Amino acid sequence: MKVLVTGAAGFIGSHITGLLLAQGFEVIALDDLSTGSLRNLESYHGLPGFRFVQADIRERASLSPHFAGADWVMHLAGRSDIVPSIEQPTDYFDVNVSGTLNVLQAAREHGIKRLVYAASSSSYGIPDAYPTPETAPIRPEYPYALTKAMGEELVLHWAKVYQLPAVSLRLFNVYGPRSRTSGAYGAVFGVFLAQHLKGLPLTIVGDGEQTRDFTFVTDVARAFLAAARSDASAEVFNVGSGNHYSVNYLVELIGGERCYIPKRPGEPDCTFADTTRIRSRLDWAPQVSFEEGVAVMKQCMKDWTDAPVWTPERIADATRVWFDHLGQPQ
């Protein structure tokens, strides 16, 4: 079988590409390289069944031919990060919403048998219930979360109206090797590891007691494969670790001095996925414990040698727009 992976040169997409190749699938790795890196795919070049295509999901006419002959589509291409989405909402809409529409139309045109969409748990906003089930209201706090939710709505609607077999996976706080080392401030592992390498204090938002459902990337890749192999359609599944961990505990595992910076508006005190549905429907469960995952990250810490080093002053400057727009009285 042949699988097209959009956003294949990105963090999660590259791990999905590797899993598919290891399972004997042919893979068309599609990416425009605006945020992804060919370094994430370098170990796959020359492998039987691997082909890289540079294409932009915003360009419908040039995108569609790459879907020819594919059986499944894993759709991960998109814009991420909170601050840039506040500054550039049009770009986020063009990529995450219009780009997803183009992917869906190409999938219809070429008779794709299964599409799996990478949604975001950030679309829940600040939930009322923990662990948070898929039935929780969608209440995005910033444009990134909104555009990911809109992309999901398109996927589910195309599944119902056009009978395109498709499911959406709401991903919770994914981390692991190859997570981005550049770009806007926001990815806690990249921030901490770069600071640790330089012997700087780790910058903890608020009091550090906020918890996150840190989910290891190989478990996420397995969830995509499980969803593709299932008969589910027009369904949503949370993908989480089955637990949640404080930022202070993460700092304890990494080691080093601490520095506390102001809490940011629009961020929940907890993210914690209810994974009952994916466990029962897709027979999927996470395999990598948080402690094991952090140990892996520490082993590949050198990958963050050239990553931006964030000080409290740089963080304050980079996140000023966040406070300006989301810190206003509602």
TrEMBL record:
InterPro entries: Epimerase_deHydtase, NAD(P)-bd_dom_sf. It holds the Pfam family Epimerase. It comes from the Bacteria. Gene3D superfamilies: NAD(P)-binding Rossmann-like Domain, UDP-galactose 4-epimerase, domain 1. Residues 3-240 form the NAD-dependent epimerase/dehydratase domain. Coiled coil: none annotated. Pathway: Bacterial outer membrane biogenesis; LPS O-antigen biosynthesis. PANTHER family: DTDP-D-GLUCOSE 4,6-DEHYDRATASE-RELATED. Belongs to the NAD(P)-dependent epimerase/dehydratase family. This is SDR family oxidoreductase.
